[in-house]
Amino acid sequence: MKENFSRLRGFQDIFGEDLGYFELIEKTFRKYAKLYGFQEIKLPILERTELFVRGIGTSTDIVRKEMFTFEDRGGRSVTLRPEGTASVVRAFLENNLINLPQYSKIFYSGPMFRAERPQAGRLRQFHQLGVEWFGGDEPLIDFEVISMLNEILLELGLHDSTKIHINSVGCEICSPNYKEKLKTFFDENKEKFCDDCKDRREKNILRIFDCKNETCRVTLEKAPKTSENLCDTCKHHFDTLINLMTKSNINFEINPKLVRGLDYYTRNVFEVVFEGIGAQNAIAGGGRYNHLVEEFGGPYTPAFGFAMGVERTIIALKQKEIKLPEENSIAICTISENEIPKALEIAKITRGKGIITHILSYYGKISKQLKIADKLNVKYTIIIGEDEVKNNTVQIKNMLSGEQKSMKVEEITTLEI
Ligand SMILES: [Zn+2]
Ligand SMILES: [Zn+2]
Question: 231, exposed or middle or buried, with CB in 10 Å at 0-12, 13-18, 19+?
Answer without folding.
Answer: middle
